[in-house]
Each structure stands twice: as C-alpha cells, then as structure tokens.
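sanity check both lines:
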Amino acid sequence: MPVFDFFPELTGTAAANPWILAVALAACHYNTSSRQKPSSSLSRKLPDVAMHGLARDFISCSPSRSPPSSPQSSRPPVDMPLELVLSIVEAAYVQDSPDSIALLKTCSLVCRSWSVPVQKLLFRSVTLRTDTAYASFSAAVGAGTPHSRVLGAAIRHLRVVIDYSQPSYLHQRAFAHAVTMCPNLQELDVALYGLADSFSGADALGTVDSSRLRRRAPSFDQETLETLRSGPSIQSLSFSNWSENQECVYQLLDLWPALRSLSMSGTSPHLLPSASSTPYPGSLESLRINFQTPPSLEFMSWLLHQSQTTGSLKSLTFDRDPCPDLFDHFLDAFGPSLQSLSTPNFPCNTTRTVESSCDNLEFLRMDRPQLNPLAYKSVPKTIKHLAIGIDRDTPLQPVIDVVKGKPALEEVTVRLWNGGEGHRLLPALKIACAYRGVELRVTKDADDYKKAFMNVSCFPHRF
C-alpha cells in the first residue's frame, strides 16, 4: 500500500496529527541527487523515497501538541462508604450457610477497615459441637481483650451440640461458660444426644432388643445450672432432646422463665410429678413442636398455662402431622389469639375448624400437596398470606376459590412438588392472583420456600 494511501486510514486531518507533517518534511530533506526526480506519476516513485524518512523521523519527532490529560487521572481514588459495603455484605449473608461463611471469611481479609465489622457479622451466629471448637471459641471471645469483647457482644444466636457418644464431646460446663461469654445472646439452640447402652450378644431372628434403642444422658449438674443462671437472659430457646432424659427440659425452662419463643423436638416430654404443682410462668408468643410421638396434654397444659391466661401465643408450628386431640386442644385454647399457623396437614377427625376458631389468623401454611378437603374450606376471611404445596394431582380449584373469595389476601406462596410445575390449573391460579392483585411466589427449592416466611410480621423469631 502506498504511504500516502496509508495516512487516510489512520486519520482524517493532518492538523490533528502533527506526525503527518514530520513525514512530509522527511521526504523533502531526503537526498534525491542520485535518483531521478519524481515525475507526475508520484504514486510510483514516492513510496520508495519516503519510506526511509518515515522510519527515521516518525520515531524521533515529538508532536507539536501533547494530547490533553484526563482530569480523572489526577484525582485520588474514592472509597465506597463502609456503611454501604456492610449493607451489601449483610444482604448476601444467609445464616448457617457454608457459602455465606466462606464469603464473610474472605471479606474480613480484604482490608483493615472491613475486618472488624465483617467479623462481627461472622460471629453473629456460632455453632459449637466439640470440646476443640469450644477451646477455639474461648480463645477468640474470652481472652479479655477489647477485640474479644467486641466479638462476644456481636453473638446473637448460639447453637451447641452435646453428644455423649462422641469421644471429644462438648462438656455441659463448657456449654455453660460459652453462654456467659455472649452478653447480648438472644437465641439459644441446644441439641442433646444420649449415650447408647452397651450391647452384647445377638438378637433373635426378626427381633430387636429395646435396650439398643435407648440413649441415656445425664441431667445438668448444679454448677452448670448456676453458671447458666449468671449468663444473659435469652428470649428464644430451641431444645432438641434425643435422649431418654425427661428432666433437662424442665431445668432449662426453670433457668429462663420469660421466654418469648420456644421450639422443642425429639423425645416427647411427660409431666413430672415434681413440676405438676407449679406451671411454667412464661407467656410464650411463638411455639414450634416436632416430637417423634405426640406430647401429653398434661405437659402442654403445664407449659402453656400462663400463655393461655394472657392470650400471648401468636404463632404455632407443627413440623409433623398433629393428632386430632392435640390439634383441637390448641384451637380451643389459643384460636382467638393465633395469627400464624403452620402444619403439614389438617387432622381428618378434628372437630374444630380454623375458620370458626381463629378470628385473627393472618398466615396459614400447609405443606402437603394432598390435603384434607376441609383445609381450604376452613381458611378464615382474615387470611393475608397463604402457603401451600402442590404436585401434579393437587386439587387446585379450591385454592383459586380462596384467592377469589378472601378480600384480605395479599400473598400466596407455592412450593412445587413432583410434577407441580405442569399442573393444568397453575396458569389459572396465576391469572386469579394477577386479577386480584395478590402477589404469587412459586418455587421448587425448599430453602427459598422457607425464606418466604422470614419477613412475616407474626413470626417474632426465626423458629
């Protein structure tokens, strides 16, 4: 390509690019005495003449005008406000999620200004399962330094696992000391696993020795109880008892008589003769039960005596199908005060309906895709949020009727089970919700389904 044909491809005007003038001057200073002077056919001669000048003078010639410098290049970098950074990190954080914990660990190493605020978020929820974990926790929180006190004050939720079948189990006294290191603790989650009885010999064919299924666990000793009593006054307790011990739940309830939220699972408690004379003095607002067998009505009456008197119970959750007697007992005693009710299914032989018993119910959750036909007929007119599960065979027309007939309804959350995404009436449900202005959330993920209830106003705690 001729050199002058090359220039228009790089620039449009010579004034804006002073190196074009330098090339032209190089061509003029070139010694042409030994060559024939350029003729009118300049395009044939000039390439050979000007090429050497271009190579020599283009490199050495400086432009007559330097390009204007960008005004942003001289400005110092502007840091994002720390409050905004922490808001973004906190929005991405999900409690007890391994990915979130890894995210917080990485963010705490970014810079010094991020380190302490992110560590406080990382220590908001702590889990202790072994004596080794307690030693590390004590070194970080109980060292007596200003930084350790900051981390201890940041803890809001503590989960401990006391498993006597493990070689390095968390001792009950270590558990008590860990609680005292958290002055602002609000939620305590205790899981107790007993030690299996030793077994020798062989079972008869087709039988299982019942002693093999027993798991013993000692009660909390007096020193542990005194240490716990000197610690913070928590608002929420979750106790999972996977042992035969019936006394531990009474010991924990005696330590915190002003609980607002209680969750119990595992072995069903029975009313002990020593506790029958004095009912639990606390007024619970939220109760969750997940027992292997239905608890005794005597124990539930002992536990909820003050709650029934004051009408404080607002949220009730059954993780397993409740028996008809227990379900009727709760509706009779707490129906007028309930604002939130969660159950896998409605008992078939119940003599009470939610519509007639729960005058103030705002949230109703029924997870099973195949429900008792009375379930949708008993939805009260005060309902604002309905959560259900559907599969390919779920009768969906009653749900559509609820959307059309309940004027207070604002939100419907649907969890899709087997083939639920292909239900023939799912588009009709979407149309009915859109027509009424009801927000519809559809998900197949169990975690996303549970997250939809975290912001429900009638849930004072996360249980």
